[in-house]
Design brief:
single chain, alpha/beta, eight-stranded mixed β-sheet, five-stranded parallel β-sheet, 14% helix
Amino acid sequence: MFRKLYLSPFGFVISGILHLFSWMHKPFMVYGYRNRKTGSFQKFTRISSSAKLLNKKNIDLANHIWIGHYCLVDGTGGVSLGEGVQLSSHTVVYSHSSQDAIRLLGKHFIELEATKRPGYKLKPVTIGEYTFVGTSSVILPGSTIGKGCIIGAGSVVNGTVPDYAIAVGNPAKIVGDTRDRDKNRFGDMLDLGKYYDPEALS
């Protein structure tokens, strides 16, 4: 019943109520997200009430995204998450870093605009469609993760991870390919018409 109601035009109202309720309650998943960068409403994107999205105007979220409990997505330098991306709990995505600027400027750090601070890193992060990022992972500024990837729990990504890669560790290293992993399941009564990437089947 709730699903039918949510999928009706009342879905916008339900999403608004859930967002308000999330301020007063223990963590739960809030359905629906208005993408401030594009103005579109992503009805199937789900974000924990405990997740923090900073500088939302620089965060581009597609539909069917899942952002778990206590995640942090820092949009300062720009973040783009493709359709179906899943960020497991306690994962952080950083698009800026002040690790050098704070020492170079000392107490004068706060006096300058971010873009004028020497050593201040401001670089966008992109994560491709249907990539899964395991719990407590850290994605550093300037990183690009391709589509269909698995990033293992507790991994630290700093750089580029190609499409379909399985990457684990600190720093994250590629240890496999999700296409091989998926093909092992193709015989288990799986409807291949539902597979997210038809090109990977050929």
